[in-house]
Amino acid sequence: MRFGGLRRYSLKWWIALPFSLGHIYRRLSPKDPTIQGMTFWWHGELPRRPAVEVFDAAAGSDLRLLNPGRRDPSTSTTLFEVACILLGLRQVEAARVLEIGTFDGNTTLNLAANVPEDGFVVTVDLPLEGDSDLALQAEGRERNVTDRTRVGEQFQGRPEASRIRQVFGDSATLDWGEFGGPFDVIFIDGCHSYDYVVSDTERALGVLRPGGLLLWHDYAEMESVSRAVDSFRGKLDGLCALEGTRLAAGFKKGA
């Protein structure tokens, strides 16, 4: 990255930076809260790569993007993140997709809209009723237990719902072998604690086909997620973070 044509972090680059109080204030308090949030995406050690480079075979693909205006980037994936996920589906020609963490079902809906007619999406979330006790350690924001009344609301009654199977339960205790794999793509966006992300990733690798794509959300934004994903370096091919997103991606070895 360059500033004024200067190589980033060079001595001249540092000298040329605008360090006035006014510039510092504007950088710390941008008018767009989403942009402000992006400045805190500093966790994780993975290299960052453009999605069109990681998913090069799919870069020119047409995508179906449904309900684009019904999403809140503070609690869900952004439009660009959804587009990156769908490029990943195209890259591996996915027909069987597993999602951990349904929330309101917007990402689920778009996954189902971009698999073949004979494909399917399995999406997992905690039960709608009863207590929200978790099998593994998770505190505060890491729990990521969303409004139970909104789970899957965006795909209910849609034609794409015929390709969606909703599973309720704790991802740490469910038998992933019963989900209908092996899967071509698995997207992990459930509980954000370190223990859960590691557990979900290990289980995902057990039902992901060789060469299949594994994606995580909230990488770089959440320390616990980032640390967990980083622990799998060397265990997946091409493990990286996607530029401009909170997504990490890697391919199962053995293709």
Structure in words:
The protein is α/β, with parallel strands linked by helices. It folds into two domains: 1-30, no CATH class; 42-252, 3-Layer(aba) Sandwich (Rossmann fold). It contains eight helices and ten strands. The protein has helices at residues 11-16, 21-28, 33-38, 51-54, 79-91, 106-113, 194-207, 223-230, and strands at residues 2-3, 6-7, 48-49, 96-100, 120-125, 164-168, 183-188, 208-216, 236-242, 248-252. An eight-stranded mixed sheet has the order 3-9-10-8-7-4-5-6, with helices on both faces. Strands 1-2 form a two-stranded antiparallel sheet. β7, α7 (194-207) and β8 (208-216) form a beta-alpha-beta unit. The longest helix is centred in the C-terminal third of the chain and has 14 residues, at 194-207. It is globular and about 60 Å long. It starts with a strand and ends with a strand.
Residue share in helix: 25-40%
The CATH homologous superfamily of the largest domain is termed Vaccinia Virus protein VP39
Structural class: alpha/beta
Number of domains: 2
**Total helical elements:** 8
Q: Architecture of the largest domain in CATH? A: 3-Layer(aba) Sandwich
What coarse outline follows from CA principal-axis ratios? globular
Low confidence ranges: none
Order of helices and strands: EEHHHEHHEHEEEHEHEE
CATH topology of the largest domain: Rossmann fold
Strand order of the largest sheet: 3-9-10-8-7-4-5-6
Number of strands: 10
Q: Report the end-to-end length measured between terminal Cα atoms.
A: 34 Å
Major beta sheet, specifics? 8 strands, mixed
Query: What's the Cα radius of gyration?
Result: 19 Å
